[in-house]
Amino acid sequence: MATTSNMFLYSLTIQPPTTISQALLGQFSGTKEQQIITASGSRLTLLQPDPRQGKVNTILSQDVFGIIRAIASFRLAGSHKDYIILATDSGRIAIIEYLPKTNRFNRIHLETFGKSGVRRVVPGQYLAADPKGRACLIASLEKNKLVYVLNRNAQAELTISSPLEAHKPGVLVLSLVALDVGYANPVFAALELDYTEADQDPTGQAGQEPEAQLVYYELDLGLNHVVRKWSDAVDPTSSLLFQVPGGSDGPSGVLVCGEENITYRHSNQEAFRVPIPRRRGPTEDPQRKRTIVSGVMHKLKGSAGAFFFLLQTEDGDLFKVTLDMVEDDNGNPTGEVKRLKIKYFDTIPIATSLCILKSGFLFVASEFGNHSLYQFEKLGDDDEELEFSSEEFPTDSRAAYNPVYFQPRPLENLTLVESIDSMNPQIDCKVANLTGEDAPQIYSVCGNGARSSFRMLKHGLEVSEIVASELPGTPAAVWTTKLTKYDEYDAYIVLSFTNATLVLSIGETVEEVSDSGFLTTVPTLAVQQLGEEGLIQVHPKGIRHIVQGRVNEWPAPQHRSIVAAATNENQVVIALSSGEIVYFEMDADGSLAEYDEKKEMSGTVTSLSLGRVPEGLRRSSFLAVGCDDCTVRILSLDPESTLEMKSIQALTAAPASLSIMSMEDSFGGTTLYLHIGLHSGVYLRTVLDEVTGELTDTRQKFLGPKPTKLFQVSVQGRPCVLALNSRPWLGYTDPITKGFVMTPLSYVDLEYGWNFSSEQCLEGMVGIHANFLRIFTIEKLGDNMIQKSIPLTYTPKRLVKHPEQPYFYTIEADNNTLPPELRAQLLAQSNTNGDAAILPPEEFGYPKARNRWASCISIVDPVSDEPSVLNRVDLDNNEAAVSAAVVSFASQDGESFLIVGTGKDMILSPRQFSEGYIHVYRFHDDGRDLEFIHKTKIEEPPMALIPFQGRLLAGIGKTLRIYDLGLKQLLRKAQAEIAPQLIVSLQTQGNRIVVGDVQQGITYAVYKPEGNKLLAWADDTINRWTTCTAMVDYESVAGGDKFGNVWILRAPERASQESDEPGSEIQLVHAKSYLHGAPNRTALMAHFYTQDLPTSITKTNLVVGGQDVLLWSGIQGTVGVLIPFVSREDVDFFQSLESHMRAEDPPLAGRDHLIYRGYYVPVKGVIDGDLCERFALLANDKKQMIAGELDRSVREIERKISDIRTRSAF
Amino acid sequence: MGCADKLRTQQELERLQAKYIGTGHPDTTSWEWKTNINRDTYSSIVGHPPLLSYIALASNEPVTKVRAEMIRKMIQPAGPPPAREEDTIMGGQQS
């Protein structure tokens, strides 16, 4: 049976996709505030732009477990809230609203109209909503269009009609928009291509010159049907439509954008046409025509008819397009169009969506690379830019005209405010620990063209340091304190040294305070603001209570000293060296009263914790006592049962630090927790029952080799726990998922930490690092991956690491790009004519040239103080790098060389090239420089290279070949035709070679040294369009394919053994081929659809002491892991949890989860952790129900879910 | 099978063929099949954003342009249809 695989994996996303396929602006909360909804892969995300700070914050992100193909928003007349329509691969239309109160998406309607999946004739590709919110049209690529009427019922609830059909066979849709017609019958405009004629014409004439039609579909609200109202031929190269405001705002109609033209069209207006200006410049091809790739229409507030378009070409140039209308005698626009005008606006990265905010910002969802937020400086109204009008150009697309030109220039109308990190497209990824920290980092190459980057991804929270000041000595501890209960900010910083205490005042300058009343000749154990205006200093010899300058001293009993203390606003507890515990409570008159009885503990007390006084109460009712006999005891502080033991918990090591604090939980309330830091470095979190004092539900995490110290701090108003070990960690409740997370801080290791609040820094922390006092803040919780980025030159293709040194080598190549030598040549020619400066390619891109390649090798140093590209080797002769490897050649005494495979004059589709080469580079200066040795001409560009037993193994087309390094070139040693089509990936262990084919999956081959032969002995049962592979063990290989699947294949055991037997060569050579393939077939162990396209997969470990996981990176920027299950019990548990989650939390867009994860091949051996983690977001009754079915408590389930994540991943 | 049944089956098939484009019939020619499969492939590429990005990235063209290009390729993905006379001469042998 399919479900009883003997390998089970738990799939988790550790970084969701960062691509944005569409972004929409709207008032989704029902308030005036504008928000942005984005569709990225399978995730729907709500963003809140913050105009004051110029930032974009994520409010909510939800995986809908379906491919989001299109989104649209609409607002019912008279309403203030925008609804969202989702067109996905579910074969259903879903209408969603955002509930700001609970911060959730809520599905209002879900209507089924067709089969699920991305199909040619099932609607979902295009979606358009009437601007007045009365109807929407959902269309397929071919033939089918469905119109839904949206309305409201008597209860003011949104209703949706049954669909009205507007199908036409043989018609392809290129673009679809809703027309703005005011309150007349809703009309939708589609740009269509008809292929019926081409299908009938054997001469091929009709197919060569297809005619594009602009078609209007009108929904007759009275008759309740849709008619094809009007159609007209437009420029055959047209590909995009934009809505032109109508009703009282403008003339209505559409802009049709084609190759080098923008045409205004409407059924009752004449056509107006402007060309798209071409770039002028020495390196620009003056003949190249541009097309519009994205754009936005914006209506200016207040005046009717005031609107403009910002349309973007493939170069990233934004053009401002405006319409002039004929004016009547009073100077009011009549609704008749007079002319269309276009002028250059600014140049920004190519966008998928542009959103103009009312607050004067432009949100750019980039197609590739970082998204950005720009601010409008002006609207390009009165500048010197040349404007072109439709009056000078013919409306007929075939008529001749003179092309127009403009000069691109740096930003004038926009300024960049924020760049939002995006790893889309992520092309290759490696995991390595180069910084010497506990956990490894993820290194990946992303981006395209001149906006490419090398990124270092680290698990951690970003910390911003405010002050780092040197101290006279090395303090052991630090506190901050207010002077009275009513103070807003802290007044003192108290530092404890081995035999002294230093009190500093917080203000404009930090100065020593001499009249604080603190005893400065002793070390301090605790500092607390007590009661209304009292201060407490606990030191080894006693307690000092300072009230308004008067000092009361409580001396410790003779021959004993205080070893530990815990304080809060009303209570003080100390532990004596004899093991006694003394408890004090503040009286009504503000003095400290000692409780008569002392409690003696069995061992030495190592730590104490009281917890804060809950609001409205007089005291915290529990005391936690940690002793060196490896226990934690909970004592009661209630007046009736003071210092009575409530519960006890045994630990694996002595506790070093304790902290009782109440934190937000996933139930929507707060829970009291006892946090325990052990001497062994383990951190534990236990639920402390507020009534009985029982300790339940312990979770643990290993933080580092040192004793863990804990401190209660506050970040964004939430109580958090600061845990200090070999590096600082912060434990907090995730703002969105409400789950508890422990994340390292990207900061120096601290010895001690405390809260810090001052006028300049409301919510900070103070810490000690050696003899430095550091004050810092954490600004953003939730985003727990830190990115560092280094710019690269061209689109990266592969990433390889130096075998010993911390350097990476990237190969980069851009198609259809002018290489640097030709650029320089053209510039030299033009300079004689005295032309303008070169524009930076990061913003303006590289000049294009058909079938030309620009390619280079970069040496990246990611870990130095200033991470940068150390050196670059440009490739010439129209060669482009396609593969790379570092190989140590046995014939050169194991010296490592960088091997780069290239192709000359490559054309991608259909695959063409003139030659292939393998370049060999020698490392110099410990890998900081490269020296070109030689290149070997081969018949095809080699798509895969790896080191193999001190030699080079190359996949050249279908051929697998072993090379050794010669003086003049590489020397062929062995070869065989192994793959059916094209080798794209290679893996090896011992004599075994796993070959990935571009189309036909995996082939296992073996190298037989006796006969110097390469022989295939097992291959795949189905086609897999392999993109990446990694060997999991000697028999198994994990890989990803172009359709978004991740899978694991295993070779049959017997065949595997036989292939390695000495002398099995003859058998293998003469083995009977099975069904036109190798003699054996691999077995499928696991299969999972990820939605994103995996570009790399590696077996690695991500946390200290964690098990090995499979980490894959996706082109849309996803980073995911597959964690192997160790016990069958866990598998059963998660399997049933997953099936309950499928039933209780069905995907938002109506896609069946099981079918989605088994998009191409039924899901096998993989449990979807992303779905299981949604358990924390369920309503409490549903949680209880599932827990009941699984025969476990809700806490237990939540612990299991968080454990499996924290054990092996972030 | 009665004559009425045959007719009903025939009608059912025709209905399916009209509803689901690409549904085959006993006389499906090689060209029809190829054209249909190619159109399915192109529409699938257009419908899966990661796949479209993959192609756009390799060819160094904007996604929007690649999408339009793919849709245009759907018009005649496997060349023009074979001439009618040829059909009768070659019969089904071509496929």
Automatic annotation (TrEMBL), chain A:
Decide whether keyword Nucleus is in the record: yes
Q: Where in the cell is it found?
A: Nucleus
Q: Which Pfam families match?
A: Beta-prop_RSE1_1st, Beta-prop_RSE1_2nd, CPSF_A
Q: Which UniProt keywords apply?
A: Nucleus
Q: Which SUPFAM superfamilies match?
A: WD40 repeat-like
Q: Does the keyword Nucleus apply?
A: yes
Q: What is its main location?
A: nucleus
InterPro entries in alphabetical order: Beta-prop_RSE1/DDB1/CPSF1_1st, Beta-prop_RSE1/DDB1/CPSF1_2nd, RSE1/DDB1/CFT1, RSE1/DDB1/CPSF1_C, WD40/YVTN_repeat-like_dom_sf, WD40_repeat_dom_sf
Q: Which residue range or ranges hold the RSE1/DDB1/CPSF1 first beta-propeller domain? A: 20-420
Ranges in a coiled coil: none
Any idea where the RSE1/DDB1/CPSF1 C-terminal domain is? 854-1176
Ranges of residues in domain RSE1/DDB1/CPSF1 second beta-propeller = 464-778
Name the UniProt record assigns to this protein: Pre-mRNA-splicing factor rse1
Q: What is the lineage of its organism?
A: Eukaryota, Fungi, Dikarya, Ascomycota, Pezizomycotina
The protein's gene is named: RSE1
From TrEMBL, chain B:
Judging by the UniProt lineage, the source's domain of life is Eukaryota
Region of interest (Disordered), residue spans: 75-95
Write down what this protein is called: Splicing factor subunit
| Pfam families per the UniProt record, alphabetical | SF3b10
Q: Please give the InterPro entries that the UniProt record associates with this protein.
A: SF3b5/RDS3-10, Splicing_factor_3B_subunit_5
Q: Which family does it belong to?
A: Belongs to the SF3B5 family.
